[in-house]
């Protein structure tokens, strides 16, 4: 292999064995991975080689992190080399706390900073309820942001969006969220031309087939320092790659009491002298572990133990 023919690039969209690579001077071309070792995800830095009109990916450079989920059947990688994950939920449809927790745990496991944004603040009543449910997550130290991506009052939109943009400035952010939370609306607000780009990428990658691309990276600014990556919804957020004994360390409210346990390898499920169980018994809710969160912990612990032999 002649090293001189290799050029650097960034994977900006992926679809099976066709990926869209952007060169440092802004050109985009379709590349095909050569063999299993060069299978990429969006956000990957690669070295590629030109073929007649397309390219082959010869090498994937080492990843800083890889955000993914894993269930019994498959591993689904979302993206690599992320600075943060924006978990976008909304007043309506009502969000699942279990799904939110799973996304947060996946981010913690890869040491990627999560930001939680609650959209549709114009729907006052359901928004108030959802905001209250999120209070414990703010107490755990997560950044929590209200949003109205499609509000009646334009002024509110501008301030909230400006705040979000400030958090995104100079970073690569993966946007995750359940169906209907407003992901497309957000992308369109951030980049009014994204629609065009999405279609362009879909057409090129699917060569006319009727499938939507999975994940794409968009530049928010002209200088290409701020990037946003969208991804399809996050149903069945499997965490099979996580050892159940590491779970407590990835849930800040549980972790806060796990240091008080008598046994260093406490599972916080039944052991005597368990700091987490004592907290639940003596001051339920007061020390930051809600009944809901403890249930999410114990259910997940069981789920992750089952899939391990
Ligand atoms: N009331 C209200 N509705 C909103 C707001 N933002 C988005 N919506 C609406 O919520 C619906 C869902 O928004 P989308 O942007 O399509 O949501 P999505 O997350 O991309 O959904 P999927 O494509 O299913 O994953 C649309 O009808 C939007 O118009 C908001 O701030 N307030
Ligand atoms: Zn314990």
Description of the structure:
The protein has helices at residues 97-109, 124-133, 135-139, 154-168, 183-190, 194-206, 252-258, 275-282, 291-306; strands at residues 6-15, 18-22, 28-33, 45-50, 55-60, 66-70, 75-80, 84-90, 113-119, 143-146, 172-176, 215-219, 227-230. By secondary structure, the protein is an alpha/beta fold. It has three domains: 3-60, OB fold (Dihydrolipoamide Acetyltransferase, E2P) (Beta Barrel), CATH 2.40.50.140; 66-230, P-loop containing nucleotide triphosphate hydrolases (Rossmann fold); 244-306, Ribonucleotide Reductase Protein R1, domain 1, CATH 1.10.40.50. A five-stranded mixed β-barrel has the order 1-2-3-5-4. A hairpin with a 5-residue loop joins strand 2 and strand 3 (28-33). The longest helix has 16 residues, at 291-306. The chain starts with 5 loop residues before the first strand and ends with a helix. The protein binds guanosine-5'-triphosphate (GTP) and zinc ion. Zinc ion binds at residues 258, 261, 266, 268, 271, 274-276. Zinc ion is lined by residues 258, 261, 266, 268, 271, 274-276.
């Amino acid at each position: 292999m002649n090293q001189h023919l290799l050029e650097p690039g960034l994977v900006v969209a992926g679809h099976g064995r066709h990926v869209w690579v952007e060169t440092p001077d802004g050109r985009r071309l379709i590349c095909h991975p050569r063999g299993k070792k060069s299978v990429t995800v969006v956000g990957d830095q690669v070295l590629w080689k030109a073929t007649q009109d397309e390219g082959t990916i010869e090498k994937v450079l080492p990843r800083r992190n890889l955000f993914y989920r894993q269930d019994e059947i498959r591993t689904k990688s979302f993206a690599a080399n992320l600075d943060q994950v924006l978990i976008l939920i909304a007043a309506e449809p009502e969000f699942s706390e279990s799904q939110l927790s799973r996304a947060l745990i996946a981010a913690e496991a890869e040491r990627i900073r999560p930001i939680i944004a609650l959209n549709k603040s114009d729907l006052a009543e359901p928004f108030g309820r959802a905001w209250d449910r999120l209070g414990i997550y703010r107490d755990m130290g997560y950044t929590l942001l209200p949003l109205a991506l499609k509000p009646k009052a334009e002024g509110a939109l501008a301030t909230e969006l400006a705040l979000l943009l400030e958090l995104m400035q100079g970073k690569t952010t993966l946007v995750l969220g359940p169906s209907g939370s407003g992901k497309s609306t957000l992308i369109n607000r951030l980049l009014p031309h994204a629609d065009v780009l999405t279609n362009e990428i879909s057409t090129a990658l699917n060569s006319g087939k009727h499938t939507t691309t999975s994940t794409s990276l968009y530049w928010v600014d002209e200088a290409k320092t701020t990037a946003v990556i969208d991804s399809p919804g996050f149903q069945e957020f499997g965490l099979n790659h996580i050892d159940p004994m590491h779970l407590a360390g990835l849930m800040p409210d549980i972790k806060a009491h796990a240091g008080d346990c008598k046994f260093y390898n406490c599972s916080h499920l039944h052991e005597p002298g368990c700091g987490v169980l004592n907290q639940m018994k003596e001051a339920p809710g007061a020390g930051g572990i809600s009944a809901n969160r403890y249930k999410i912990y114990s259910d997940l612990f069981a789920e992750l133990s089952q899939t391990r032999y």
